[in-house]
Amino acid sequence: MEEMVIWEQHTVTLSKDPHWGFGFAVSGGRDRPNRTTGDTAVFVSDVVSGGPAMGQLQKKDHIVMVNGLSMENVPSSVAIQTLKTCGKIANITLKRPKKIHLPVSKSSPGSPAVPRHYDSDEEYRLHRSQDDLDHSQGYDGDSSSERSSGHQRDDRRQHR
Asked: Which residues does the annotated region (Disordered) include (predicted)?
């Protein structure tokens, strides 16, 4: 089995307690990057036992947004001040690392051992052969993902 880390995104709503606050501490930020990786994410460094964040946040969760304000690439002071002044409710969007195990597949000679990952549906389509495009009506014919992503499909194919 091969181990891989993926990031899950969650949104939690916390109510501020008069004694505990939101019940968690943050570290990191643009001005305090991770010493090993250089990552500038704001992350949860501690969760107070019995506080509002208990059971909702975990150590190492990356804070992406607080009440709609981006916390990506901000100094630690901005993240802390945003949490202190956001009122009694905090809607927190976070990314959480999750380890998954993938079976190691036997690859045929000449094929890569690791499957290619594409950044977008469009990049995927550009790398498929014309034969694949002609036989993939289930994929190309499904417009639900295009509608939800805001992308429109162009059925006019350019032939070279």
From this structure: 97-160
